[in-house]
Amino acid sequence: MAEEDYRWNRHEAAAAYDAAAPLIHPRYQEVQAAVVAALPFGREASIRVLDLGGGSGRLAELILKSCPNAHLTVLDQSEPFLALAKDRLAPFGNRAATVERRLQNDWLGDVGVVDAVVSTSAIHHLLPGEKQTLFMQCFAALKAGGLFINGDEYRPASTEQFKALLQQWSRHMEAALESGAIPSSFEPVLGQWKRRNMQEFDSPRKSGDDCLETVDAQIGRLRDAGFCAVEAVWQKDLWGVVVARRLEITG
Ligand SMILES: C[S@@+](CC[C@H](N)C(=O)[O-])C[C@H]1O[C@@H](n2cnc3c(N)ncnc32)[C@H](O)[C@@H]1O
Questions:
Q1: Containing domain of residue 123, as a range?
Q2: What is the C-alpha separation between 106 and 228, in angstroms, rounded?
Q3: Do both 165 and 228 map to the same domain?
């Protein structure tokens, strides 16, 4: 898919998502709070954090406010999302940076080694093999003792339950659009979401679609990438927060 055709690269889609994220995604704030709570470093720690697919910088802002000595890089492939992130994070000066890059690219050289890699609502856009390669790169990017924390969409194992949760989320977004809580510019994004995820439920997924996997599948993938102590620390409906640690080197 040409990058300009990707839905997250349209200015209207980025602006609408940024304006209404907590209404579009019913667990948005709970997921972000769980990601921040999983950072084990203490408020005053001088840590380096990477936010993968960090979009308009909402999670980055929360982390930079919660950890006043942290430095954070938002990595995303979308110029319109990163323009919003730059505005939002400008008050943090050189504590915040942005990198325009795809998760599938080699980004380690641009970002360097970090204490934590975080992400929300982004990694589920990758195909299984792309996720595996990304998790290996995350492992390489982390210092010993560092953490990977993914607050993302996950599917239940049961197809019936998955379809019911998709219906529930669709009704939630439709009601928020009808009431005007979500800007009408989000309507085409929702229309395409319903086509891909509900009408074409059985069609094969391509990179950039919503390629949800179960929490257990992702835990297995992270272990395969070298992480230990991998667990889901929070889970509700279609959302979860998975935490994985890169082992400390001892002896
Ligand atoms: C639903 S938005 C979430 C944004 C932000 N993480 C948040 O929680 O508010 C999805 C984001 O993932 C980014 N994204 C999707 N696929 C990507 C990829 N392959 N590489 C880099 N970023 C990607 C999009 O550009 C977009 O900013």
A1: 3-156+207-245
A2: 23
A3: no
pLDDT over 70 at 169, yes or no: yes
Q: Whose CA is nearest to atom 27 of ligand 1?
A: 55
Is the model's pLDDT at 4 over the cut of 70? Answer: no
**Residues 99 and 188 reside in one and the same domain:** no
User: In this structure, is residue 114 part of a structural domain?
Assistant: yes
Residue 245: strand pairing partners: 147, 228
Residues 189 and 238 in one domain: no
Ligand 1 — pocket residues by CB below 6 A? 8, 17, 21, 53-55, 58-59, 76-78, 81, 102-104, 120-122, 125
d(CA 5, CA 22): 25
- Spell out a b/e string for 108-142, using b for 16 or more CB atoms within 10 Å of the CB, else e: eeebeebbbbbbbbbbbbbbeebbebbbbbbbebb
pTM value is 0.96
55 vs 4: CA distance, rounded Å: 16
Question: Which residues sit opposite 236 in a β-bridge?
Answer: 239
